[in-house]
Predict the 3D structure of the following.
Amino acid sequence: MTRYEELKSHSSSNAAGEVLVPCMAHGDYVCVESLQADHLQAKSDIKRRQEALVAQLNSEPAFAAYVMALSGIDKFFVFYEEKYYGTLFFYELYFNDIDNIWLICQTCNHGKQDEDVLSWFSSQWLYGQEFLDYLGKLDQSSILLTRTNDQRGLAQIAIEWYWNRHAIYTCTAKRILENITTPLQILNHKVDRIVGFSHQSARAERLLTSLSAKIDLANAIITSSGLGLPKGVDESPHDSSDSDEYLKTENIIDKETYQKGIQMAVPEVGKAMSALLIKSILKVEAEELIDRSNIVDSIVSEEQLDNFQEPQEKTVEVDALNDAPSSEGRSNKDHLTDLNFMSNKPFG
Amino acid sequence: MFTINENTTFSKTKRETKKELAEKASQDINEIIVNYMNSERNNILETLSSKGITGEKAEKVLSNLKMELQAYLMVEVSKNVREL
């Protein structure tokens, strides 16, 4: 499976139909066009090591004689006018080593640049010291490319870590994108089309209210239901983005301990009662908001919206609109009548 | 006041596995919450009513509150057990 195929199986799309895939460096979904092949071990570092090897061949005849006697070595080095040179194949083979390449977004790639890979990993929230510990001791005997002791490439291990460690975060990001972000983009698009053409302020106001309600709802959902986003100060101190499920099983060591744990927790729950009650009320309010916004959506059908798209000139007088027939044989006056009819419907 | 109901029975089986203990802890937590919600139902409904929340909406709030309490208590127990 290629690097892109790995990502494609987790792809989604935005309101404009653009394909989005997760960036494994920062974890959010980005346009597939913005992905770049990044050399985890900096290309300048690889090139520096390759040039050092060629320089070694030229400075130590005994070493050069040993290396040039190896089978198939003529693909890698040539001897021309009393000097050794690396071939194009030599430079490209290591430069394009698949185990050192992964696909990340342009912004992350630009930020990473030629930074030392271990120092870069340690500053990333998806990796950090925990990943460096997982990586284990690196094989220092490797001349050209940094590898682990079991001869696996850095990109290979980073990708494995990402999918194993942050699967829940990636699924959550995808759910938020598909269920909240993209519907909001579509709704926003509808609002733009209505406001841009019809000048029906009452209708525009309703649609904007609907948009605002959905944003409030999205905020309510994100802040209250523990979707696996980065933890707030009042949440569990467990520092990965994984579920806390294992804490509920692995750390319960005996019956007395968990009974004591429950007894200690009960008074705390009593203190939090007011906040939990308010949170419960807010959730019900949020559900009502989305019901109301769905009613607005159901009033404004896609078919009706399509009738109003692509205005010829926004400054045209209403009188002129009244007489201009549309391509479907309906005059724009008919459409405006529809709008007036819709705006008189009771809201909610 | 939020207290453990005297009728709550903790699991007494010996030699449970960690997973079994966790499942029983979950059952105990559920029982604590159910008992609490039964005893405090009228008080909560009264509080909600004073804020203008009645009928079906109040029932939804109660249902949400039960889930919130369960989740909160579970997290608190996990934290405590980790520290013990």
